[in-house]
Amino acid sequence: SGGSVCCDGEPYSPSQMVDALAMSRPQPTWYSSVPTIHNATVSFLKDVASLEQKYLSVGVDANGIWATGHSLRMIRSGAAALLGPDGRALSTAYGGIPIFPTYSMSEQMPISQPPAGKEDTLIDRPG
After folding, report:
1. Which residues contact 38 (CB under 8 A, 6 or more apart)?
2. What is d(CA 14, CA 42) in angstroms, rounded to the nearest whole number?
3. Residue (of 69, 7, 66, 67) closest to 32 by Cα position
4. In terms of pTM, does the model score above 0.85?
5. Residues paired with 43 in a beta bridge
6. What residues pair up with 103 in beta bridges, in sequence order?
7. In the 8-state DSSP scheme, what is residue 12?
8. Nearest Cα to 72, choosing from 100, 102, 51, 46?
């Protein structure tokens, strides 16, 4: 099908997350993570990446918005509830892409999410 799975064997760091999304070949079209990771990455984009040439050169703007330079089409969130304001900040940080809360039997093995194309998935139930 042409699909790929990208995994990093290193502990999470916001800079490595942004590097992986910008420089992996092929570039990921979606990722799944927990709210803590999402929030740390959004903070990194706003507070650090927006000031560094390395990240400005891959599309992060001076406000920490990364609308171009990545291939993300959606982000899935699981393991804990993603609060509405955090979900909106996450979507905005990546140029308005949809965020899908998921229901999981374990940390990140989603079994249910709102349907793609739904107007507002952040205030709805995951399944």
Report:
1. 75, 77, 82, 86, 90
2. 9
3. 7
4. no
5. none
6. 112
7. P
8. 100
Amino acid at 126: P
Contact by Cβ (8 Å): 80, 102: no
Average pLDDT, the chain: 85
Burial code (b: 16+ CB inside 10 Å, e: under 16) for 94-112 equals beebbbbbbebeeeeebee
Cα–Cα distance, 92 to 23 (Å, whole number): 21
44-91: per-residue pLDDT in tens? 999 999 999 999 999 999 999 999 999 999 998 888 888 989 999 999
> Cα Rg for the chain, rounded, in angstroms?
14
Residue with tokens 């349907």: 115
Identity of the residue numbered 55: Y
